[in-house]
Amino acid sequence: MEAVQGAGEVISADKLMERKVLIDQCLSFCRQPREADIVCRSYGVGMPKQTLNEIAADYSLTPERIRQIKMRALRRMKAGAARDAKLEERERILGL
After folding, report:
1. Could you give the domains of the chain?
2. Please, what's the b/e burial string for 27-55 (b: 16 or more CB within 10 A of its CB; e: otherwise)?
3. Interval 42-68: pLDDT, tens
4. When you count CB atoms within 10 A of the terminal residue's CB, does the N or C end of the chain come out lower?
5. What is the 8-class DSSP label of residue 96?
6. CB-side exposure of 56: number of CA atoms within 13 Å?
C-alpha cells in the first residue's frame, strides 16, 4: 500500500507511520503543549505551515518571542533524542 505526501513524493503507509511515531517522540520532549504547537505550526506538521507573525498573533506574543520558544523547544527535542540514542546504545551493549 502506498500513500502520497508532499510534492509528489510517494512513500509507503509503513513509512508514514514510522515518521508519525518519530515526530511524536520528538514532540514529547517539549515541556509545554505550547512549545509543541509552535514547532508543529512553524514546520507544517499536521497542518499548513505558518509564519512566526501568524503564530504570534494567535498567542498575543511578538514574533521574536515565538522564535525564542521554537528554538528552545528544538534544543530540548535534540537533547532528548540524543539521550534516548545513548540509552539505546547502552542497552544494546549490555544486551538488555
Report:
1. 2-94 (1.10.10.10)
2. bebbeeeebbbbbbbbeebeeeebebeeb
3. 999 989 999 999 999 999 999 999 999
4. N
5. -
6. 12
Rounded distance, CA 89 to CA 74, Å? Answer: 23
Distance, in Å, from the CA atom of 48 to the CA atom of 61, rounded to the nearest integer, reads 20
| Number of residues assigned to the chain | 96
Q: Which backbone phi and psi does 59 adopt, to 5 degrees?
A: -95, 0
19: which residues sit within 8 A by CB, 6+ positions away? Answer: none
* Cell numbers for 8: 509528489
pTM of the model: 0.75
